[in-house]
Amino acid sequence: MKILLIEPYYSGSHKQWVDGYSKHSLHDIKVIKMKGQFWKWRMHGGAITVANTFNKMDYKPDLILTSSMLDLTTFLSLTRKKSNGIKTAIYFHENQLTYPWSPLDRDLLKKRNSHYGFINFSSALAADKIFFNSKFHMNSFLKALNPFLKQFPDNNEIESIESIKDKSELLYLGLDLKQLKQPKFEKQSLPLLLWNHRWEYDKNPELFFKIIGKIKNHGHRFNLAVIGENFSQKPEIFEKAKKTFNNEIVQWGFLDSLDDYAKWLWKADILPVTSNQEFFGASVIEAIYCNTWPILPNRLTYPELISEDFHNNILYNNDIELFNKLIWAMQNKKNIKKSKLFDLVSRFDWAEMSQLYDRVFENV
Question: What mean pLDDT is predicted for residues 58-65?
């Protein structure tokens, strides 16, 4: 089977998804990609660029597969002579209907933020099949469509929601977990707490540092590794935290090397997660694979990713439970490291997921 895989935002989890599936699939995959920057411009103008590229290619796929960063309607209109009759599928890593906007975003302040959600909506209408990276993501998107469309003055097209629902399907994210090799390192006496997410507001770093600050003020000792992708503009709390936890920090900042990243995942003991938004949770899955004990909100996508047998010890419902479960994990450091959490998430490795993807895409 020939698949044209389009990614207008080739960075982070989008890049890993494209590279991982292309590497492990048995299908013939050609990729059109654009640099992962200026996400709003990618959603507006990226379709023109990738359409021009596709029209020049000597390649006719059986399936056109794209991420939700593409305006599929514009792409199809500009490639209609070549794309006519070819099945299309869209994969939602995230969506702009339910993704929490930064309160400082200019488009939000000027009430121009609805257009990006409309691109997601119209692209979903145009696609033959729609895939979501979690049940939570799929359900929240479908639920958000009704109030989103009702805000428009007439011809709301509410009935179109059913057609989108009928062609929507769950397809979890695949990850290259096996490349996270376990290194040799000396065991530490103090528990090592980990942050390995993007340094952005939707990951709720304020609560993360507030809770571990409370832990510190109660006299509990620990080490801290703050890694993950960070940008030129990041929440101010990170600079404050760097000073507050100067004595606890053993690693600070993004790690370019995969081996270095894997080393800190394997060294870490506990991953307290405080995110306000998560459509899948790749960084969490990677840490769990490396036997880091997670403490997760009992909401978003987390409950569906973790076996119910672990829900009582891992999931929390409020800040008090987060604090107490973190204290418990720190006091039971040796026991939680014996839990062998690998089995909880190994199913997301591309070795298994690529076979599922291949079968699913054959049936679009």
Answer: 97
At 315, give phi and psi (nearest 5°).
-90, 140
Helix axes 350-362, 12-24, angle to 10 degrees: 80
Measured CA to CA, the distance from residue 118 to residue 146 in angstroms comes to 12
- Please tell me whether residue 86 adopts helix, strand or coil conformation: coil
Here the tokens at position 106 are: 């200019």
pTM of the model: 0.92
- Domain range summary for the chain, segments of one domain joined by +: 2-176+349-362, 177-347
- The arithmetic mean of pLDDT across residues 52-58, rounded, is 97
- For domain 2-176+349-362, the CATH class is alpha beta
State whether CATH 3.40.50.2000 applies to domain 177-347.
Answer: yes
Q: Do domains 2-176+349-362 and 177-347 have the same CATH topology?
A: yes
Which of 256, 283, 270 lies closest to 327, judged by CA?
Answer: 270
Helix/strand/coil percentages in the chain, nearest 5: 50, 15, 35
